[in-house]
Amino acid sequence: MYTIPRYCDLDGVIEISPLLEGVTLATLKACDTIHVRTRNSDYEIFMLDPKSGDALVRGGECFTEPVEATVSGSSFGGCMLKAGWLGVGLRMEIYVNGQRTVTSPVQSLRVEHVDFGAEAFESVESELVEKSAPCDR
After folding, report:
1. Which position among 22, 33, 35, 78 has the lowest Cβ density within 10 Å, counted as fewest Cβ atoms?
2. Is residue 65 pLDDT above 80, yes or no?
3. How far is CA 53 from the centre of its chain?
4. Whole-angstrom Cα distance, residue 45 to residue 86?
5. How far is 37 from 58, CA to CA, in rounded Å?
6. Under a CB-based contact definition with an 8 Å cutoff, are residues 43 and 66 in contact?
7. CA angle at 37 for the pair 105 and 122, rounded to the nearest 5°
């Protein structure tokens, strides 16, 4: 008999989601940058409108040059999407010109905030420390 892995059904996802570490896009500000390392690539996501997920994305084979995109959220690679959230261990879903790109699983996330002080423009690291998935062995 065929059984569905626990994390692939809705009950399993509900159990797992509070345990996953990640970034809620809506809590970010315009001009914040998310540095993402997946199993296969590195990405830079420069947020234009965090509430809608609009961003400039560069990285991986698909985005060798910065491109306007919508960062939709994270999934296990199937049809269930946690919208507006990027999670360690999950795959990012990015839309460019109506085409969906799904990355390999995220291994780490780091957010860089930009401080628009009166004196100068400075880049400051987020209080969000780099979050890493356990090593696959």
Report:
1. 78
2. yes
3. 10
4. 11
5. 12
6. no
7. 145
Please, are residues 51 and 62 in contact by the beta-carbon 8 Å criterion? no
| Least confident range of 50-54, 66-70, 74-78, 92-96 | 74-78
State residue 77's pLDDT score.
76
Mean pLDDT value of segment 82-92: 91
DSSP conformation class of 14: H
Longest CA–CA separation in the chain, Å: 67
* Alpha-carbon distance values, 81 to 1, 67, 84, 92, 93 (Å): 27, 22, 9, 9, 8
Secondary structure letter of residue 52 according to DSSP: T
How, if at all, do strands 99-116 and 131-132 pair?
A: antiparallel
Residue 82's pLDDT is 85
At residue 10, the pLDDT reads 47
Task: Please answer whether residues 109 and 130 qualify as being in contact, where contact means their C-beta atoms are separated by less than 8 angstroms.
Answer: yes
